[in-house]
Amino acid sequence: MRITGPGIWGPPPDRAAALAVLRRAVALDVTLIDTADSYGPDVSEELIAEALRPYPAGLVIATKGGFLRTGPNQWVPDGRPEHLRAALEGSLRRLKLERIDLYQFHRPDPKVPFDESVGALAELARAGKIRHLGLSNVSLAQIEQARRLAPIVSVQNRFNNASGGTAEFNGVTDDQTIAVIASCEQHGLAFIPWGPLAAGKLSSDRIAAVAKAHAATPNQIALAWLLRRSPVMLPIPGTSSVAHLEENVAAAQITLSEEEFASLSVAGSA
After folding, report:
1. 103 is catalytic
2. Catalytic one of 18, 33, 39, 226
């Protein structure tokens, strides 16, 4: 998302730097890159193909469809089956793939019955154009509804430990997302938290103290907390910087004690 221009619109200010981030991620053994057709729009997918093809074995490119873009920082849900079919074909073309390994419905569209949107993606999966289906920005009820229509392997909702459970997106609060995580654990779904670093709002004394103890940054501790939170957790911190990317990846080597984890568990406590 962050390798596009301001407002997630247009090309990046430094194209070479964006390509370098993608290549460095693979060099650091990152095996999943999450994108969407709406990032740019189209720009992120095009950069991924330019930087990484031929894709190394084991690398999963996950993308999403279900938004129209009308300008910087403007997002218009579109869950019409015809739009989702066209969005998938566009992603296949830009990524230069014959099948998307993980295709996620970006956000339910209040103007379109949820069953129709998910049903269209299920048809595309049966046609061999999607290997696995995921959902994004959904409630527990919507996950259960989708699972009756097709196998679902992942859920991507906003989640971090900075909001105290008060933040809400698409009618789903962080507190409600705790129930979603529990359902993912029960059914073996990956949970992919977006906004894992809370847009730079990680400035509490608790995080600072734990970061100091580990000679780490607050962002690294936030990621370590998420990884400690659940075995199905798969954070996707965005970045446009190689240095920031390296910092994020290094967070996977941090092991929080039970006491440290508990002290940081605000929105994410069980």
Report:
1. no
2. 39
The answer on pLDDT for 160 being more than 70 is: yes
Q: What is the pLDDT of residues 175-196, one digit of tens each?
A: 788 899 999 999 999 999 998 8
Alpha helices in the chain (DSSP H): 15-27, 43-52, 81-95, 114-126, 140-147, 174-187, 205-213, 218-229, 242-250, 258-264
Q: Write out the two tokens for 38.
A: 């709406």
CB atoms within 10 A of CB 127: 11
For residue 234, is it within any domain?
A: no
Q: Are the beta carbons of 39 and 70 closer than 8 angstroms? A: no
Residue 44 lies in a domain: yes
Residue whose tokens read 């992120």: 44
- Spatial separation of the C-alpha atoms in residues 165 and 160, rounded to whole Å: 9
Q: Which of 244, 247, 210 is nearest to 228 (CA)?
A: 210
Q: Which domain holds residue 17?
A: 6-156
CA dihedral 68, 176, 120, 88 (to 10 degrees): 40
What would you report as the CA-atom Rg of the chain, rounded to the nearest whole angstrom?
18
Q: What is the mean pLDDT of residues 242-268?
A: 89
pLDDT 10s digits, 85-123: 999 999 999 999 999 999 999 999 999 999 999 999 999
Q: What does pTM read for this prediction?
A: 0.92
Answer whether 48's CB lies under 8 Å from 101's CB.
no
Number of structural domains (the chain) is: 1
For residue 155, give the H/E element and its range: strand 154-156
CA distance 35 to 22: 12
